Amino acid sequence: xxxxxxxxxxxxxxxxxxxxxxxxxxxxxxxxxxxxxxxxxxxxxxxxxxxxxxxxxxxxxxxxxxxxxxxxxxxxxxxxxx
Length: 82
Hints:
Distance between the termini: 38 Å
Oligomer: single chain
Structural class: mainly beta
Shape: globular
């Protein structure tokens, strides 16, 4: 079990020399359950909320991608083949 001392603190942070983030984070699970991964052009990615989406071609949802600071960077489409 991994837990945080309160609702504001991240329950899991991993740092390492291979990170391209300024604070050398490799991975973090935020207190709200979002996942931050090192990657990209020094920004990393924050995989946030899973949102519903429908499209006749088969989209079944989207995963919101944010910067580590929380600004929306884009969306990953989740596809299912009907």
